[in-house]
Amino acid sequence: MLITILRNIVRQARRQPLYLALNVIGLGLGMAVCLVLTLQVRYEYSFNASIPDAANVLRLDAHHMNPGNAPQENADVPFIAFPFLHTDFPQILATTRYETADYQLRAGDRRVTADTAMVDPSFFDVITLKLERGNARTALTRPDAIVLSANTAQALFGTTDVLGRIITTDHEGHRVSQTVTAILARPSGPVTIRPDALTPIPAYEMEKPQFTRWGSSAGDIFIRVHNAVDRGVISQNLTRFVIDHASGDANDDNSEGVHPERHFGLSLVSLRETHFHDLQVIGGDEATDRSVVNILELIGVLALLLAVFNAVNLATARAGLRAREVAIRKTLGATRMVLFVQFVGEAIVNTAVGGALALALCEVALPFTAALTGTTLHMDYGFTLPFLFGVVLLTGLACGLYPALILSSYQPAHVLAATRMPSGGRSAARLRNGLVIIQFAFAVAFAICTLVVNRQANFMQTLDLGFVREGVLISSGDMANDAGKQRALIEALRHTPGVVSTCLSELTPNIDNRHRFDVTPVGSHSGDIHVLGDTIVGDYATTYRPRLLAGRWFDSSHGEDDSPGDDAFYKAPGKTWNVVLNRTALSRLGFVRPESAVGALLKSGSVTLRVIGVTKDMLFISAREDVSPQITFYSTAPQSYPHASVRFSGASENIMRTRLKLAWDQVFPDAPYGFETVQERMSTFYITEQRRGWLFSIASGIAVTIACLGLYGLASFIALRRTHEVGIRKALGATSQKVLTLMLRDFLRPVLVACVLAAVPAWLVAQSWLSGFHQRIAVSWLDFAIVVSVTIAIAALTVLGQTLRLARAEPACALRAE
Amino acid sequence: MLIELSHIQRLYRSDEVQTTALQDIDLQIETGEFVAIMGPSGCGKSTLLNILGTIDRPTGGSYRFGTQELTAMNEAELAKFRREHLGYVFQSFNLIDELTIEENIELALIYREMPKSERRERVAHAMDHVGIAHRARHYPSQLSGGQQQRAAIARAIVGQPSLILADEPTGNLDTDNGAQVMDILQRLNDEGATIIMVTHSPSHADLARRRIDMLDGQVVVSVRNAI
Q1: Is the terminal CB of chain A with fewer CB neighbours within 10 Å at N or C?
Q2: Which GO molecular function entries does the Swiss-Prot or TrEMBL record give (chain B) (predicted)?
Q3: Chain A: nearest CA to B1, how far in angstroms?
């Protein structure tokens, strides 16, 4: 049987190479898309899977709901909760705090800026990251211990064999010597926890307010539990935990009972879930939308389905060509079952050839996909080969069953006596058209969604941020709370050639730190709203050029413009300071127009704030995030950990980077930060959508290609079948032009129907995806018009050759055709 | 004179072989004639009919239809000529499987861009004329051979053509159905239609007013039947 099948395929390849090529290429493309996207989806679902028992490692997340703000979830929680966890929950096996900061590491001449996690000695009891060298039990027990990642060790020493070596570390001006106690192994799969270094939390760090106040956001707390039951028990009791430990202190920004308008809660997220879950968490910019990942898999499956439809369509369309073979075989004694098995076997062998092509395409495409999506995706043959085998078998069966049923059912006497090859009649024609409609409906829906994703990615890049982004450079790191150095830096930057203006502020594009406080309009009964605060130093207005909607900007000549900023602010009760609101604060505070807010007084504790101006919202955040109400202060005093921003002109960006870096290094030689553009700092917000857009573009391009391959094959068949009809029509007086119009209309009708069918689902999917963004485009009828026009144009080009040939047929020849 | 063929020649050329299908045909046909063309297979009967029907072009000679010289016409002009002047009946009926009988018949009028109401009226009349009105909504595959050929005749006459060309119209039919088709053709001729029919059947050829015998691409005999 196998020899018969192979012989038949070789014969087909010789006699009908186009048909076989269309079939194999279509299947190969479909399986390749399915394979690549499955590997991509598998990658997304495998985050933290390489960490042993990651499902039982839980992160404590904080939930804040404050007046005037949308509810927020934060992975950074107040560390004050840490000691109570063990006492309240005996289910907890181990727990650790995890606070990241930039450390300057130095070994000899080599210096590295390392994303360092300050953790408890129990870290490895909770998160069992693999070590290349060292002992996890003792690695973090010494106060001067430091664990390096393999990459960091390589960068510092050129080798990972560095246990016991001493390095100098600098964090916020605390320069100490630390001993390398362990080296982290390179993770075998994607992980969300990938520090450059780990070190015990220094004593000075623990004195910070975020370690002692419930309202703060210090860092992550991870806990290890035994199983899901324990997780459930802890989750159920977290509300009680908050009430017992966090409520009642009016000065803390949390409440359960004292301030019912506010809510503070805690929840648990498994380490296996954080990659998807963090999309809803503040700062979770690297997170992935699970629904988008699922859509990717759906696209993969649908691409394969399109290829299957192609194969079924071509096979049933051309079944008539093999009718005589079937009739003769049956006459010679072949049973229906034998023929059925033969035809299914042929389909499976054809699919296997397509599978080999898919594997080759996948090998070629995977590095590009990895580069495109910014992942470490690679071919895992241990998974790929069994998966592909299953796909080939199922696809082969799906492709072969129906055509085999039709072929094996032909009656020899009827076929041999007939002058025309059997076509399956109107029901078969309806099936073929139906499959073409489904194919194009999927392809068009993909294409519309792809266009929307790309437009949103583009929109996010070019969004009006409420300030002039061009010509601004921002320090990549913040600076110590050192008045002398901050002033020295401003001076150094101001005197740098090309610098137009410079300022310091905590809030910059892609915000690192946020502090919030409550304000209420004087004389209003609307209650407090929770606002984001920033204190700016220097010439902020020239540097960022915010759009003033009403009032004026700060002016150092006005005494009340110059507030003390930060903690000093609260140490000056009874004072009035001038502030500027953003548009969101304006509306949340209940002002109708910007002008009506100017001069208004707000209360924050015992301090009074006078609104002197209102600006457009300055978008330093992801388009997914709701804009917070913000109040800006001006100060000539130093601030906590601000970033430096500079507006420049007259020199190129790269030259300015070099100049600014020199100025920075003069003041902060141990904090070797560079300067970044607004675009660079905010790219994390849209890079995922951009990459997704590329991936979707390729997938939908292939989907359209597969659909067109099918349409081309079908058009070839129909052209052959309808030649005779064209002869009749021409004999009755039809011109070539009329025949051309008729044939094009007939070929394109299913494509048009598909476009109509695709519109509503595509709109719903696009709307649903866009609803995840606060700043978003509207789905436009133009998206549909563009995709439909392009699809019809491509489909028309696909069938044009066949149609023209048909339209130009000489009637006498056409009438003889069969 | 309705048709005048002078020195009509039709050659088929392939890479290696040149075949002469028609050679120096001179033929005149008057309006209202019923001409039967006979001859052995391959003698050029169908080729001559195709040229008369302008669905094939002669490689030489002149074809005048009334006052028009058809060999000088381009493809679009010939299509217009066909839809205005000709009606076809084929041996294998040549009905389009995907269209109903009514739609098949209407096809001959669609290319004339005639109003739909008039088309419907003419189609109904043509179907009545050949006795297949009760099969209007059926598809060709649901009809017998005789019924299909009557539908084809209805399609041929629905446009009220100057000339009806029938290529072995009884070739695929049994005796009874063949006789019925010949009756219809005779009736149409009696009503004034000019008919040229290719046939293998001497008895059917005898029903025509004139009989032309062909051999090896040439007209060898042209005789008027005594009717």
Answers
A1: N
A2: ATP binding; ATP hydrolysis activity; transmembrane transporter activity
A3: 23
